[in-house]
C-alpha cells in the first residue's frame, strides 16, 4: 500500500524533506479524552493491550486528534518478558509489577525464547488491523524494549530509581547476565522482524533505563545487544534507538546500522551530530515545556527546531508525553513544527 505521507521514513533515511516530521512518544494514551473514555470501560491496561481491535483504535486516535506524521502501535515493552514466561501486572498508580523475578541460573533456564506468532500474536494482529485501518495515511511504528531495560524489570520486579538488584547482577554474575540478555535479544529480534511482517514501516528500540549504567557496563551489557538487533532488521526498515540518559553511548550508536538516534531533553543535538555523522536525530523538547502557555510552547518548539536544523531531524519530545498534558498544547507543538520547519526550508531555498 502506497503511503500518502512518508515524511518520517524519508527523514530517517537522510533524504531531503519539505518539512520536519513530528510525532510524540506515548502519543496514544492518557492525554486524549477518547482514550480515557475507552479505557474506563475495560478491566485495565492489559486488556487494552491484548485486544487487537481496541489497541488499533487507540493507536489511530492521535492521528485523528493531533495530526501527527506517524502512528506507533499501542503496546508495552513488558509484553516481551511475559512472552518469555515471566508474567507482569500493571498496578494502577504504581506501574508494572512482576510477582516472580529472575534470581538464578535456574530461573533463566526456565525462560523460553518466545515465538512471536504463538506468544505475541495479539500485538501482531493489532499491527495488521491498524495497518488496514490507517489506509496508508501515515507510517506505522513498531517497537520493543532494549534487552538491558527488559532485564532490569525482570530482575528488579518493578520500577526503581536505582535498579540496584539488576545492576548487582551485572557486577556479581556477568555470565548469568549475558545468558539472560541472550534470550531477551533472540526473542526481541524475532518479535521485531514479525512486527515488520505484520505491517510496521519503522521500528524503535527503547532503552528507558540506559542512563543508570556506567559507560563500561552500558557498552558491555546494552549497546552490543542493541547493535545486534539493529543489524538483524531488514535493510529497508529504519530503526531508531532511544537510550534515555546515555549521552556517553553515542560512539556506540554511531557504529550501529540504526538510522535514527533519539535524544532526551538534556542533550545538545549540535554536539551529538559531531559524534554520529550523517544519522538522523529525533527529539527532544522537554515534555514539561508543554505545560507552558501556547506562546511559550511555540517559542520552545522553534528553539528546538533551530538547534537541530532543517534536515535529518524527526521532531519529538525528549521522553514520553506526560499524562496530565493538555492536548491543546500538544497541537500547538505539532502545528509549530510543521509551520516553522517549512519556513526554515523556504529560507534556505
UniProtKB/TrEMBL annotation:
EC number: 4.1.1.37
Annotated Pfam families: URO-D
Residue ranges annotated for the Uroporphyrinogen decarboxylase (URO-D) domain, each copy included: 21-30, 141-157
One biological process term in Gene Ontology: protoporphyrinogen IX biosynthetic process
HAMAP family noted in UniProt: URO_D (MF_00218)
UniProt-listed PROSITE patterns: UROD_1, UROD_2
Residues reported to bind substrate: 26-30, 76, 153, 208, 319
Enzyme class, broadest EC rank: lyase
NCBIfam families named among the record's database cross-references: hemE
Complexes and interactors: Homodimer.
GO molecular function: uroporphyrinogen decarboxylase activity
InterPro entries found in the cross-reference section: UROD/MetE-like_sf, Uroporphyrinogen_deCO2ase_HemE, Uroporphyrinogen_deCOase
SUPFAM superfamilies to which the protein is assigned, alphabetical: UROD/MetE-like
Keywords, in A-Z order: Cytoplasm, Decarboxylase, Lyase, Porphyrin biosynthesis
Residue spans crossing the bilayer: none
Name assigned to this protein: Uroporphyrinogen decarboxylase
Organism, scientific name: Hymenobacter oligotrophus
Recorded catalytic activity of this chain's protein: uroporphyrinogen III + 4 H(+) = coproporphyrinogen III + 4 CO2
Protein's job: Catalyzes the decarboxylation of four acetate groups of uroporphyrinogen-III to yield coproporphyrinogen-III.
Site residues (Transition state stabilizer), renumbered to this chain: 76
Family: Belongs to the uroporphyrinogen decarboxylase family.
Amino acid at each position: 500500500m502506497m503511503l500518502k505521507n512518508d515524511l518520517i521514513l524519508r527523514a530517517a533515511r537522510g533524504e531531503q524533506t519539505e518539512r520536519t516530521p513530528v510525532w510524540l512518544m506515548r502519543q496514544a494514551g492518557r492525554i486524549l479524552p477518547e482514550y480515557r473514555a475507552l479505557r474506563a470501560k475495560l478491566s485495565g491496561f492489559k486488556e487494552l493491550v491484548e485486544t487487537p481491535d481496541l489497541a488499533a483504535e487507540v493507536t489511530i486516535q492521535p492521528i485523528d486528534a493531533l495530526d501527527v506524521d506517524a502512528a506507533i502501535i499501542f503496546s508495552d515493552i513488558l509484553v516481551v518478558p511475559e512472552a518469555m514466561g515471566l508474567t507482569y501486572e500493571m498496578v494502577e498508580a504504581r506501574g508494572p509489577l512482576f510477582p516472580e523475578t529472575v534470581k538464578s541460573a535456574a530461573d533463566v533456564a526456565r525462560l523460553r525464547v518466545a515465538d512471536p506468532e504463538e506468544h505475541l500474536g495479539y500485538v501482531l494482529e493489532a499491527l495488521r488491523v491498524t495497518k488496514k485501518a490507517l489506509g496508508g495515511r501515515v507510517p506505522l511504528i513498531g517497537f520493543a524494549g532494549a534487552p538491558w531495560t527488559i532485564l532490569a524489570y525482570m530482575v528488579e520486579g518493578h520500577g526503581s530509581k536505582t535498579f540496584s538488584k539488576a545492576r548487582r547482577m551485572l557486577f556479581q554474575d556477568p555470565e548469568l547476565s549475558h545468558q539472560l540478555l541472550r534470550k531477551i535479544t533472540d526473542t526481541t529480534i524475532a518479535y521485531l522482524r514479525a512486527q515488520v511482517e505484520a505491517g510496521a514501516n519503522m521500528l524503535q528500540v527503547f532503552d528507558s533505563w540506559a542512563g543508570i549504567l556506567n559507560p563500561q557496563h552500558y557498552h558491555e551489557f546494552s549497546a552490543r545487544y542493541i547493535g545486534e538487533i539493529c543489524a538483524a532488521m531488514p535493510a529497508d526498515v529504519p530503526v531508531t534507538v532511544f537510550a534515555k540518559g546515555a549521552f556517553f553511548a553515542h560512539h556506540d550508536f554511531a557504529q550501529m546500522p540504526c538510522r535514527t538516534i533519539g535524544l532526551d531533553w538534556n542533550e545538545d543535538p549540535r554536539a551529538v551530530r559531531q559524534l554520529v555523522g550523517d544519522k538522523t536525530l529525533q527529539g527532544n523538547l522537554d515534555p514539561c515545556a508543554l505545560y507552558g502557555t501556547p506562546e511559550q510552547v511555540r517559542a520552545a518548539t522553534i528553539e528546538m527546531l533551530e538547534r537541530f536544523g532543517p534536515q535529518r531531524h524527526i521532531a519529538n519530545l525528549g521522553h514520553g508525553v506526560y499524562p496530565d498534558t493538555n492536548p491543546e498544547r500538544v497541537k500547538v507543538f505539532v502545528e509549530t513544527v510543521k509551520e516553522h520547519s517549512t519556513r526554515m526550508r523556504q529560507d534556505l531555498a
